[in-house]
Structures
1.
Amino acid sequence: MQSQYNRRFGVILTALQKMVRRRGTSHIRKIVSKLHPADVAKLLRHFDPDEQWLIFSIIDDAEFAAEILSETDAETSEQLIRHAEPSRIAPILRAMSPDDLTDLLDQLPDDLRQSILSFLHEDLEDVRALMQYGKDTAGGIMTTDYVALNEGMSVEEAIKEVRAAGEKVMVSYIYVVDDANRLRGVVSLRQLILADPTQTLREIMTKEVWKVHVETDQEEVAHLVAHYNILAIPVVDHENRLVGIVTVDDIIDVIHEEASEDLAYLAGSSKPLDTLIDASPIKVSKARLPWLGTALLGGLFTGTIMSFFEGTLEKYIALSVFIPVIMAMGGHHGIQTSTMFIRGLATGEIGDILRPLWKEFLVGCIMGAVCGFGLGVVASLWLGNWLLGVVAGVAMFFALNTSAMMGVLLPAFFNRIGIDPAITAGPFITAIQDATGIIIYLGLATLVLPWIVK
């Protein structure tokens, strides 16, 4: 299915590029008008700023243009808004939902943000309310487009209200509030339709409502929505007053964002991977440099440790043959373990670390025994010294065992002190494991050296 989509997308892109080169505005309009806003936003990434504006400017429908703008990346959004006159872009921005417009403003440079706020100041009451919350919180990702009705309202009256609101708001749930706008319950659309018209919302509502506070982290919100399989979750303030809802489409964006961020950290980058795909070499280098710098310091630390065993290596240089093998195996196993453990932390599947720690200890023993035996046999045959084979095999056993333990303990420690454990999984675990593997291997070799060299 994905390949079919890619083929179709490629055909459309080729046709659009041809029309843009010819400045065939009528044909461009015809192509774009038949596409989904998300596809148009994706297509725009393949054009330079002037061409992007040519395509975007011929869209007459403000709501369609608003949906496209809400789907574009930060760089494309900035270029489109800079190209547009305030009178041209204002209707499009007004057509955006408050939460989408808030997200757009958050990713724009200060000068452009202030410019938009100045010529839209009368239309931004909801947006200003959303902008006061952190962008990674429930308040930052919620929307104010929802249906909330008083608990004393009858079902018949509620249906009329839903019909009126349904033209502007996608209704999945009706939130029931009291006179002070405090959340009291929730009624699904199905419940409302099947209920007796004379009943009140108080009588048919579900009182146990999953809700989040405006300051709840977006990752926790996503976990709740995914875990309880709901289409939206209400957001309340300190006094339990309903201020917004987070819908499932926003949750999908959060999951994608968090996954990209974690993958970027695991890959040794300080920025999400999807923001670096089309970035300049300098921007990509800046994102990777901090983590490569950490790896460099870790390598220098490992080199310093090796210098303490200089005498051992001078007496039996063949020991150095298996250093890269032990370091690489320990590092890879540590990353595998930490990746699985970090995912468990993120999804809430892991609470107490003792069980995964014991499990990874056993896995480390099994993997260490298998790989250690294999390396020991190879080392004995290759170097013609069974004792050296034992040293290499035992070192491999302990290297894989300690890497498994580090893959659990380090992320758990950083998570405990409030630092994203994904940050520690790459260079930090690798550096620590390299040093540990060297100490174990060359330490054992130093102990048995008198029996190796006579």
Note: The mean pLDDT is 84.
2.
Amino acid sequence: TINLNIEHYVLPMGVFAVYVEINAIRYGGVLFIGKRVSVDNSFSVEVHILEEFQKEIREFQTVWVEFAAFIRDIKSFDSFAMLKSAIKSDIDTAKSLLQLSN
């Protein structure tokens, strides 16, 4: 997971299927933008890379993100298990939308 520092925020909050480019290599991913209402209510922009990725991202390294599809709005979950289940569903949906193999 890459935590992004966004200076100019203009997109709606939610969960998105995205493409991420790092060092001229493109990966599929799931992006979360918004308040982490089920955890600590802090604002966060996080992208989870769905494909094999072994490199370390250095602070201040440029990461390009291309939005492919909206998956869902932000929700509050009653338990950590429900949150984990939703994240798994988001990953499965993104893989399907981006046509990535499981």
Note: Helices lie at 80-97.
